Amino acid sequence: MGQLITGPTASHGRFLLGHVPCLKAAAAVFSSRRRGKESGRPDGGIGAATRGPPPSSLLYGSTCRIRPHQRHAQNATARAALPSSSSTGSAMATTASSNTFSFALRRLPLDLEGGGSYYSLPALRDPRIDKLPYTIRVLLESAVRNCDEFQITKEDVEKILGWEKTSMKLVDIPLKPSRVLLQDFTGVPILVDLASMRGAMSELGGDPDKINPMVPADLVIDHSVTANVVRSDNAVQTNMELEFERNKERFTFLKWGSSAFHNMLIIPPGLGIVHQVNLEYLARVVFNRNGLFYPDSVLGTDSHTIMINGLGVLGWGVGGIDAEAAMLGQPMSMVLPGVVGFKLNGTLRNGVTATDLVLTVTQMLRKHGVVGKFVDFYGRGMEELALADRATIANMAPEYGATVGFFPVDHITLQYLKITGREDETPTIEPTFSSYLELDLRDVEPCISGPKRPHNRVTLKDMKADWHACLQNKIGFKGYAVPKDLQDRVVKFDFHGQTAELKHGSVLIAAITSCTNTSNPTVMISSGLVAKKAYELGLEVKPWVKTSLAPGSGVVTKYLRSGLLRYLSDLGFNLVGYGCTTCIGNSGDLDQIVADAVTENEIIAAAVLSGNRNFEGRIHPLTQANYLASPPLVIVYALAGTADINFEEEPIGTGKGDRPVFLRDIWPSSEEVSEIVQSNVLVDMFRSTYEVITKGNPMWNQLVVPTAEVYSWDPSSTYIREPPFFKGMTMDPPGPRSINDAYCLLSFGDCVTTDHISPAGSIHKDSLAAKYLVEHGVKPKDFNSYGSRRGNYEAMMRGTFGNIRIVNKLLGCEPGPKTIHIPTGEKLYVYDAAMRYKTDGQDTIVLAGSEYGTGSSRDWDAKGTMLLGVKSVIAKSFERIHRSNLVGMGVIPLCFKSGEDMESIGLTGHEQYTIHLPSSVHEMRPGQDIVVTTSTGKSFVCTLRFDTEETCYLAASASRKYQAIYCIL
């Protein structure tokens, strides 16, 4: 695999070649990171122009050293001043005078970035450090650096030092991240909350300007662009114009936030996907905060924040509520995780892609069980993986269930150091792990994943048989229950004067998109080569297949313009924008003729995308089968036009001279791809892209925004409305209340996702959210998406549990956003039923199976649940982020005891439920038993899923944001 250049930028003076992870070589590799006036915060990075020993001993001990080397040119851009608020200091490391571990503070030589200091872990002289996994060492350094005996104590440090024993006891520790990362779908609600907090602060007689992020926050606007226009040379400009037309209110609000709040950098729309921009530009790797050096760590409001672990930066996705509290200076309470060691051996076979590898890893780790755990990758096989390959694997951690998939320093880092005139040594001690897995890269086969879950991997050679099994199987994650006599039915129709055919498995959407793969030059170059060979052999994509190319940064199109972009366009994969598009559900409408053919004939249509999520109803309402694939395979499936194919035996299509063309005829070798990557992925491409990233574009720059520090809410806005969370707030928190005689609002089976709970995609014309928008003067063409409406709680309440594919047991197997109002037996929309319960003063709960809340991190899955009046969710198990979100909004998560569920207890959902909580919040503790009784005389015991000391938030009206604002006051 070729080494990957992913830098530098002139503004950061940054180079990345191969793999440059955390502190091992960071001081030697990264130069001063400019955070100019637009960011409103101090410089956040360490210099590459350094000489002498870096603070690598923070994580790796005295065995690591970097010998003298040449200094890179320094960036002359001035650093921004610290925010004036005195509270900003709490976001910085505890000063040496107040830190219990001040004895571990070490000085750097003056010629190393002008000197400075860092907290040295070897200075603790504790032999347990040598055996700690790399990820745990990052947590340890943070605790040591921030130990003030108030928010973080010496006892917390001892818990981490004793990880080998304490991780099995589910102890909780506090974490203060170095920064917070946001995207616009989750970032708008946070800025709305911050703006509302300023209003609440003013009403309480406080200083509104105290409401500011206390740690650096980066927000990238990437989730708003939709693939409306495709197969056009003007698609990018047209889609961006539509994006600004629909989202002007949101963008104006965000631009106001960029100047109203200190310590926040906002990247304007049209410039890239948040995680790719984070990988290529935003990540510091090492912070330099007023001369104190420490590791970059990040919490993000998108579950794929973990992509940055491929760079050796520890980070993961959290709910918007947790991120908001962290931004306001609150340490995040987390369970000290177990760490799974995943050993990689060998090398990938010729033609096998990083996507094939990540889908294999995802399946293995899902089977092993890594929910709530960190995964540290190690082994000689990592030597064969470029940084982008590692980032692809790290990106999919939510899909394999882990909190983190981390790649520490290894030989690829050393290669880079040697190439730039440095020499190095690396530690030889192998850390201890909670459990172990091993994979020989030579065993990885070409594959895709689907049709409804990311970890349902299918090898290409088995795909045809698997598809037919899915048609035959009963309805489920791998079944559609299509009658046998209808499985091979072909529907013919006229498509703008051309005869068209559809059948089950016909591909209607083929999208090269998502940070998961577009950040990887190897698979993107592969897709260009596949397009070139297919075009030259005379293959074409049927015109009714909606094709698109939406990379994660402008760097991609720069290196594809070296000769491959034209072939992608020739096959219909024109550039449509720089954003998440299809992966987040912004696929745009299908041609109405095609849509009618699908709905009228009940076709199980397919979408193939190079994304990371394929849950039901996410990609497009009319594609029930959705497959994740590498970018070159996306093109292959678009050419074939069907998922019902065995590429080893059947041709993709007929080319020039009626010659059948097989996959082997157009698939490039690894050597072909590597040669082009080496010669075409150039440093200047990254420099020119990121020199201008904060300058925006003409449409963004022309937005006129207010200058007041307190936002003036527009009551007529359908995008940005003042949320109800802080209205009527007093200095005395109301505290929790009991749950008596609650009705079941909804009853679910397993794997209800956040896409089911709070959809992000298009707003269906028959939905209650659509009705609300029409009543407020919005035309159907301007509905936009649920994700874009997250600044308006009225629209989001109506969209909660609004997925058209959601299955509520109270309605049998009928999918859709409705439920039974138990007291009357009426069938109502979920929102209408919830409002009736609230009007009548009746509490509600939700019953669910396992893995409740799986999927994207989004705070509206919990906010909407709370605003609908739900007081508790009782499930077999919860996804990590969603559980935390529920706690943050005061919705109590309870788990059935092992071996029990609704069926075994005999619950129908038609009973009333009383949850016997302690009379005082101070009597509640993580994991305690809670008795639940029903109106039918049943009684069962649940586990309270407060996994850490989260009960304090119940005392603050069950909201972490309340807790934060009280602390500020």
Task: Describe the overall structure.
- With 969 residues, the chain is of the alpha/beta class.
- The strands form ten sheets. Strands 26-29-30-31-34-33-32 form a seven-stranded mixed barrel.
- Strand 27 and strand 28 (826-829) form a beta hairpin.
- Helix 28 (860-867) packs across helix 29.
- The model is unreliable at 1-93, 413-428 and 960-969 (pLDDT under 50).
List the defining traits of the structure above.
alpha/beta, globular, 7-stranded mixed β-barrel, disordered C terminus, single chain, 969 residues, 5-stranded parallel beta sheet, 34 strands, 29% helix, disordered N terminus
By DSSP (H or I, 4+ residues per run), the number of helices equals 31
User: Mean pLDDT, rounded to whole units?
Assistant: 83
Quick one: how many beta strands?
Answer: 34
Give the class from helix and strand content and strand pairing: alpha/beta
State the share of residues found in helices, binned by percent. 25-40%
Radius of gyration: 27 Å
What sort of overall outline do the alpha carbons produce when their principal axes are compared?
globular
Strand content: 15-25%
- The main sheet orders its strands as 26-29-30-31-34-33-32
Give the N-to-C terminal Cα separation.
Answer: 55 Å
Main sheet summary? 7 strands, mixed, barrel
